[in-house]
Every structure is written in structure tokens, then in C-alpha cells.
Amino acid sequence: MISNRPDIRPALGLRRIINVSGTMTSLGASIVVPEAVEMVEGILTEFVEINDLHRKASQAIARATGAEAGCVTASCSAGITIAVAGAVTGADLARIDQLPDTSGMKDEILIQAGHMVSYGAAIEQAIRITGAKVIPVGQSTHARPYQLDGKMNERTAGAVYVVSHHAVQYGQIELAEFCDVCHERGVPVIVDAASEYDLRGFLLQGADVAVYSAHKFLGGPTAGIVAGKKPLVRAAFLQNYGIGRGMKVGKEGIAGTIAVLDAWQKRDHAEIRARETGYLKLWLDSFRNVPGFAARIIADPTDNPLERLELRIDPATAGTTAWHLATALSTGDPPIIVRDHEVEHGYFYLDPCNLHPGEAQIVAETIKSTAQSIRGKSMPGLRELRRRQHEALLAWPD
Fold first, then answer.
1. Residues paired with 321 in a beta bridge
2. In this structure, which long-range contacts are made by residues 119-127, counting pairs with CB atoms below 8 Å and at least 24 apart in sequence?
3. DSSP 270
4. I need a labelling partner for 375 at 20 to 30 A (CA). Which of 46, 67, 240, 351 fits?
């Protein structure tokens, strides 16, 4: 049974979706933890001196990450941009005024070709907004330290390293070695760790700056966290007086981030893992004897301490395809949004991290009943479905 929790979505004319896709920005990222809700509610009706609130946030970020300092911005993408801008300008307000004109500055940013991902937008664009030039290292499935070293010159301002399921997961330079090579040439390393649990490991491996989303696994309001060495964080923060102005975060985002960082350190992570494991086992048992279904539990590709259920669909036996089923689930009642970024390979994932009580059982039952209801029915192919999604996007707000 679903709990009788208040749900504002119908009053806004929005669908009551169930999210088994994960901490996706397009779905609102995560369920915000009570500590952050309380903090945001408390500060919304009060005035604060924003830069002093930022100082408090820096202290909270340092406590949680082991960094020398930290700052809060609009999102992880914004964090990447201001961190890169800080590597280009330093704490020079005249140079900050000058961006995105980088004349007279070091303005090349290195990134492995296999890390040039899209997270809803291209990471190269987050870098280029600063005026910096993106310099790819290696090939998409082959990067080596000599290639990284060979791209460095007197114009190299920094390097970006991406930790994400979107990035190529083999043939890349590991972070510690990447940092060693960069540091030998005096080049700072900025890690995009948007959706990562590990708040300390990337800095311990040598990263100068690590950038996180406050609103994903942390369960906070929409914000980005920049953590790292004080001079680089200061230079990133000062972008609020330049190109970072349009990426500024309000008092609620800063205060909410302080709350989630403190809550993260007190959270019963073992209890959460046990609950999520229970959901996975429920799904595994539910799909065990469904014709055409092959379910298995798989680990997170970037070593976050979580697992997901992979549900592979055999069209010949199930009478439908993975993409047909995923599409039908997204338009059902209730709508269920699965993790379908690899759906052309005949499977999708169920992520247990964002479920309210009772929803795991509904997911299992709805997937089985939906598969049965569309069995043998003619439906558009994947190419056509993607074309329709593209057209719907371009028709917004209609």
C-alpha cells in the first residue's frame, strides 16, 4: 500500500510519476531529506548576508569533504564552469570581468576524449562558456599518460576529469595517475563527480577540486558544490562577480546544502542499503518466471555503494521489446519512468534509490501487467519513438 503522504502534483496538473530511473535532473533529481526541507522553510522568510552564508557553507563543505574550502552554486554543471573559470582567471577581478575573452590568460582545458559526455548538455559547452578552449586527450577508448603530457603547454590552465556512468569505463587514465601527470606540470585537476557518493576520495586521490550535485544522492535542493584547495575555490566563488552571476544560488540553496551535508554524515547508510536491497530482491522474485524477462542485479558502474536491477526483454518470447515496454510504462497509470539510456540493447534498469513506501510493489505489478497488455501489439520502432520525443521537445511549451 502507498502511504497517505501529501502529494502536491495533482493540484499543479502534474502526473504522479514513480521514478525508478535514478537521480535524474529531468525528474526532479531526488527526494529532498527532511533536514533540508526544514532548513529551507526556515530561511525563506528571513534576510541574510549572502557572502556570510557562503562562508558557513564553505565550512560545512570542508567538514564533509576534507577540502580546504568550498562554495555553492546553481548546479554541478555551473560548478564545473566556475571552477574552470577560476583556473583561468585566478582571484583577479579584472580578469573575471574580462571573461569570456581570455586574451592574455592561460585558456586551454584538457579532458580525455572518453570523458566528453552529455549529461543533458555537452560538458565541453560547460567549459567553453568560460571562453576556454577544450583540448581532447587520446581517443574515446584509449587515453594514456604520454598523451595527456603531450597536450600540455604554456597555455594549459587546467584539466577536467569526469566520473560518470556516461563516461567510457575502460581505456582511460585513472584519476590518481591523471593527477600525478598534471601536477608534474603545475596543472590543476577538476573532477566532475555530479552523482557520486564519495565526498572525500577524489580529493584524496589528488584532485584539486571536486564538484558535486547537492540535489542527487545527497538529497538536497538544487545546487552544485565546489570543494577543494582554497585558492581555486576562492577563484571559483569570485566568478559570482562575472560569468557566474547568472549561475548564482539563492539563500535556500546555500542553507539547504549546509543541511544535507550535515545530514549525510549522520545518515544510516546501512539501513538505506538494506531497504534498497529489499526492493531489488522483490523485483528479482517478481520477474523470475515471466516469459521473456531476464532479471539480474548489477553494481553501479562508478562504484557507488548501490545496485540496480537490469531487466532484459527477449522480444521473441515476451512479445514486445525493451523500448516498447519502457515507453508504455511512461504513459501508463501510474506512469513509471525507468532508466532507459541503453534501451537499444534490449534492456533497461530499475533504480531503487528514489521510492516512497509501497511504490516498489506497484512497479513490479505494473511492469508485468503492462508487458502482458502490449504483448504482440504493433508499436513504433526505436527510431520513430526517438523522433517523436525530439519533436515533442521542439514543440515545448505546447
1. none
2. 119/77, 119/164, 119/166, 119/194, 120/25, 120/26, 121/77, 123/80, 123/160, 123/162, 123/192, 126/77, 126/80, 126/81, 126/84, 127/80, 127/81, 127/84, 127/160
3. H
4. 351
Q: Cα separation of 115 and 101, whole Å?
A: 25
* Residue 250, C-beta contacts closer than 8 angstroms, at least 6 positions apart: none
CA atoms within 13 Å, Cβ hemisphere of 307:
19
Whole-prediction pTM: 0.89
Q: Are 88 and 130 in contact (CB under 8 A)?
A: yes
Do 331 and 255 lie in a common domain?
no
| Residues 204 and 287 reside in one and the same domain | no
Domain membership flag for residue 5: no
CB-count exposure of residue 393 (10 Å: 0-12, 13-18, 19+): exposed
Question: Are 151 and 137 contained in the same domain?
Answer: yes
Is residue 4 in some structural domain? no
On whether the CB atoms of residues 33 and 220 are closer than 8 A, the answer is yes
* Residue 256 pLDDT level (bands cut at 50, 70, 90): very high
Are the CB atoms for 24 and 217 separated by under 8 Å?
A: no
How many domains does the structure of the chain reveal?
2
| pLDDT single digits (tens) 321-357 | 999 999 999 998 889 999 988 888 999 999 998 899 9
pLDDT of the residue at 18? 93
pLDDT for residue 363 = 95
Q: How confident is the model at residue 3 (pLDDT cuts 50, 70, 90)?
A: low
Task: Find the domain containing 331 and state its range.
Answer: 10-28+269-394
What pLDDT score was predicted for residue 234?
A: 98
Does 3 map to a domain? no
pLDDT of residue 1: 44
